[in-house]
Write a structure and sequence with these properties.
- With 226 residues, the protein is mainly alpha-helical.
- The protein has two domains: 12-81, no CATH class; 86-210, Ankyrin repeat-containing domain (Serine Threonine Protein Phosphatase 5, Tetratricopeptide repeat, Alpha Horseshoe).
- The protein is 50% helix and 2% strand.
- It has helices at 32-37, 59-66, 69-77, 87-94, 97-105, 131-138, 141-149, 164-177, 179-187, 193-224; strands at 16-17, 20-21.
Length: 226
């Protein structure tokens, strides 16, 4: 889990000003007096690099990327935008399944693509990646399943043509060639590309069966109402 720190701004906002936040931070777990008291803009953008992320990130995006689920919950309770700056993609890329599930329950757009730089997309160098791409690249079955349960699209491709299955296959190849790489994935709860591929294949079969049933269902409805 990343360290967000415990600074506080002069305005009592925990380092978040009305137009952005600078040398302060998110607080030490309770968001500081500013967020708890409602003084800070929960969608303010950072004005400097923080927790390994570039400037221009929201508090929710930073908390999601660094694994601070308590801060994520508090920000959502303050009506933070769950889609601004792709917090779902960031949480998926780091393996934080609890945060992914909380964001999904709070209305995060499951198929929203991250159109920012790789640094703003959890290290993904495939612009246009969704949270499912991030989870497949990490080879994290629990996050992949959570996203599929919310109808994540396994056929979505990035601007470079990568789909979640190709990223899971790439994780398998890289892990086989470099055990240290596989170990890094496992440290984040991932490193199980075979299980991810099984989940994606099962989802594809379910989609195919559903599509095959649809025409007969429509015909039955036409007959019933003729």
């Amino acid at each position: 889990m990343g360290d967000i720190g415990s600074g506080s701004g002069e305005d009592g906002s925990g380092g978040f000003g009305s137009g952005g936040f600078g040398s302060g931070d998110l607080g030490s777990g309770d968001l500081g007096s500013g967020f708890a008291g409602g003084n800070a803009d929960v969608n303010a953008l950072s004005t400097f690099e923080l927790a390994g992320l570039p400037s221009g990130m929201t508090p929710l995006a930073i908390a999601a990327s660094t694994g601070h689920e308590d801060i994520v919950a508090a920000l959502i309770a303050r009506n933070a935008d769950v889609n601004y700056r792709s917090p779902l993609v960031l949480a998926a890329a780091q393996g934080f399944v609890g945060i992914v599930e909380r964001l999904l329950r709070s209305g995060a757009i499951v198929n929203q693509a991250c159109g920012e730089s790789a640094a703003m997309c959890g290290g993904l160098d495939n612009l246009g990646a969704t949270a499912l791409h991030a989870a497949a690249r990490l080879a994290h079955p629990a996050i992949v399943q959570a996203l599929l349960d919310y109808n994540a699209d396994p056929r979505a491709t990035t601007i470079f043509g990568a789909d979640p299955r190709s990223l899971a296959n790439d994780a398998a190849r890289r892990s086989a060639a470099d055990p240290a790489y596989g170990a890094r994935l496992q440290e984040k709860g991932g490193g199980q590309p075979e299980e991810v591929l099984r989940l994606l294949d099962r989802n594809a079969r379910d989609r195919t069966r559903s599509m095959r049933r649809e025409p007969s269902s429509r015909n039955a409805n036409r007959t019933a109402y003729a």
